[in-house]
Amino acid sequence: MGTVIVGAVVFGIMALALKSIVRDRKKGKSLQCGKDCSKCKGCH
To answer: What is the predicted pLDDT for the residue at 41?
Structure first.
């Protein structure tokens, strides 16, 4: 039972992280550009 609970918590954290990355990407932010592609010159 403990394994299922820990697995669910880990899965939830991963889902939130992925959601944040997708949301930032849709807003034009990128990890490679310090999350501000307007200041980046050709990182894509």
So the answer is: 59
What does the block give as tokens for 18?
């992925």
CA angle 18, 29, 23 (to 5 degrees): 35
21 CB-near residues (< 8 Å, 6+ apart):
31
Q: For 8-38, what is each residue's pLDDT tens digit?
A: 999 999 999 999 888 877 776 666 665 555 6
Q: Indicate the helix (H) or strand (E) that contains 7.
A: helix 2-26
Show Cβ contacts of residue 39 under 8 Å, excluding neighbours closer than 6 positions.
33
